[in-house]
Design brief:
The structure is a single chain. This protein is mainly alpha-helical. The protein starts with 6 loop residues before the first helix and ends in a 19-residue tail after the last helix. The chain is 57% helix and 7% strand. The chain has a 3-stranded antiparallel beta sheet.
Length: 169
């Protein structure tokens, strides 16, 4: 059970619109900041860490599968893989079954960095959800998964970005 906010906390809380999309945007903003703080000093962006975590959890995932899991387009997945490969954290190999496919795996250095960062990220995630009880956290995560799965068709990288104006000739 969560406690009621104190009068001081009530005065300092920002009024939030009680609608899913603005709340999700605010939550995403908080998550991005928390992740960036977790990675501070490690020369990784939150998205680069996300790639490391996915490749760690699923060695030999291909770049297309990685893009789908992370929720980015193939071009950005390729750029992220290039960056992590240049840092010596990840290698890509040609698939033995399909020469067009590039499979990804962490290098020993990438494994060590992931092993170092994973507990830091996990502790930060726990702190982020500390306003919820343990059972509530599990329910919250399961509800997020259900909402995401029910709306997967809307998960299109780049959707909602401002369209570029045509270049005048």
């Amino acid at each position: 059970m969560t406690r009621a906010p104190t009068p001081t906390e009530k005065r300092t809380q920002i009024p939030l619109r009680l609608a899913p999309m603005p709340l999700a945007r605010r939550f995403q903003q908080i998550c991005t900041t928390a992740m960036a703080e977790s990675l501070e000093g490690n020369e990784l962006t939150p998205l680069q860490y996300g790639v490391l975590a996915y490749v760690w959890g699923e060695p030999d995932v291909d770049q297309v599968g990685l893009a789908l899991r992370v929720g980015i387009d193939r071009t950005n997945a390729g750029l992220l893989v290039d960056q992590l490969e240049a840092k010596g954290l990840l290698v890509r190999r040609v698939s033995e079954t399909d020469r067009r496919v590039r499979q990804l795996r962490l290098t020993p250095r990438g494994e060590a960095l992931h092993q170092h960062l994973a507990p830091i990220v996990r502790r930060r995630q726990d702190k982020l959800l500390s306003g919820l009880g343990v059972a509530e956290r599990d329910v919250f995560i399961q509800m997020l998964i259900r909402v995401i799965n029910a709306n997967e068709v809307l998960a299109r990288p780049g959707a909602g970005r401002k369209k570029r104006s045509p270049v005048a000739v």
